[in-house]
Amino acid sequence: MIGFYELVHKMEELQAGCVAATLIKVEGSSYLKEGAMMLFWEEKQAGMISAGCAEADLMERARRVAEDSIPQYVTYNLKEEDDLSWGQGAGCNGVLHVWLEVVDDKLRRQLLYTKSMLEKGKSILHRKEISLMPYPTTVNEFIKVEDTDHASLFSSGVQFMDHEGMVYTHLYEPKPRLIVFGAGFDGRTVAELAYKTGWMVMVCDWRPALLSKEDYSFPVETFCCESGGLSKVCMVNERDFIVVMSHNFQKDKEFLSCLPEDQLRYVGVLGPRERTERLLETKELPDFIHSPVGLSIGSRGPQEIAISILAEMINVFRTRNQAADISKR
């Protein structure tokens, strides 16, 4: 699935203007949540709003928006499952509220600014004021959230609505970062799957031969820690995900000793729990230590193990975010 970074990159490549469709409100369940975006240009499109139920209609509407430069507000009721409805048995079972607008020079600059801030680890709050009367208009505002710890206080979706218009907000947060210690085949497999799932990825190892960029078909930061551990790699924060899988007991021990003692978000250690207890010299493992790493799905081989690890990481990531959303209601 194409994410925000890829959409903005595509928008930057386009010579002509394009139309952006944003999912601003969801009633019930849906394939995607508020903040999902699509781009339309010429006869092409990128991104997703639904599981394919609304995209063809959005393409037609985007053509009209591009022609007359007038935004459109449209809802799709995917709850019904008869042949005459939008749902057509797709299983979304929700109502989608979508806003379409031309990506003019100002909005283009704002989106590029958002992407650059996210790449620097900063969160951006998007506030969209939508007027429906007397005719559709949009005012977009993108605000840098200086205190990252308070970013979770903001929620996504329509915060106010009446017959004249609405106010929509969405918090763009930096991609979660995964640090993999161990550049063997299984470590590279986890790193690649994590990148495709939306993580920024760093791979660390003490063996330079395993860190050649030629061995990676995706963007990744590599670091050789021959004479030191994580403290010489980067500043680790509480949002990072870390997977230790070098298959070398002493190197794993050295690496783990470099981790901050404060609460971390996720540290997965390959191997049985007893090995991890010996690595950390304690039987009382912190809650953020996941050992053995990955969900117990009977996985075999590097690919299946990587899937189990990513599934566990996604569970940790989404559960925390959903808890934050509930606390804001």
From TrEMBL:
It holds the Pfam family XdhC_CoxI. Transmembrane segments: none annotated. It comes from the Bacteria. Residues 178-313 form the XdhC Rossmann domain. InterPro entries: MoCofactor_Util/Proc, XdhC_CoxI, XdhC_Rossmann_dom. Residues 17-76 form the XdhC- CoxI domain. This is Xanthine dehydrogenase. It comes from Fictibacillus enclensis. The lineage of its organism: Bacteria, Bacillati, Bacillota, Bacilli, Bacillales.
